[in-house]
Amino acid sequence: MTVSPGAAAGRAKAARASAQAAPRAVARDTPPADRSVELFRASPLERARIVKKGVPASYVVALTDRMAMPKEKFYRTVGLARATVDRKVRGLKLLNPDESERVVGFMRLVGQTETLVRESGSSVGFDAAKWLAGWLDRPLPALGGRAPAEFMDTADGRAMVADLMAQQQSGAYG
Fold this sequence. Notes:
By secondary structure, the chain is an all-alpha fold. It has one domain. The chain is built from 9 helices and no strands. Helix 2 crosses helix 7, helix 3 packs antiparallel against helix 7 and helix 7 (about 95-120) runs parallel beside helix 9 (about 155-170). The radius of gyration is 18 Å and the shape is globular. About 30% of the residues are buried.
C-alpha cells in the first residue's frame, strides 16, 4: 500500500497532537489529588511536556490542602516565591517551567508514596500525602540526620529523596 506524502504528513501531525493532548489533560484538567500516581508513572517525556507547558498555580493550593501542609512551609520547602505563586493563583495562571518542575516533582513523590504503600500491602485508611508531609520533616540516618525536606528545593535533591523513599519499601532505611 502506498501512502501519499500529504497523508503521511497529516497522520504525523495528528499523532503529535494526540501525544501532546494527553499531558495537557493531566496538567490542566485534573487536580493533583487525582493525578499524583499518574505523574509518578508517567514517562520522562510526558512529564517534560507537562512542565514546559506549565501547571496551574492552583495545584499548589490543592497539594498543600491534601498534605495538610501550610503553604508557607511548602513554598520554603520547594523554593517557590510566595508572592509570585499567590499572584498566579489569583489570576488563574500557569506556573513557569521551573516552578512547574518543583510542583510536579513534589506531586510525583506523593504518587510514589501511594504506589509503594499499595504494592506493599493494604492501603485502606492510609493517607499518603499527609504521611509524606510528616516524613519529610523527620531527620533520617540515611541523610546524616537531616530531614528529606531540606533537599526538596533542587531537582537532584528531589531525586535523592525519591530514591530514599524507594528504599523505604525494602526496609533499607527508616
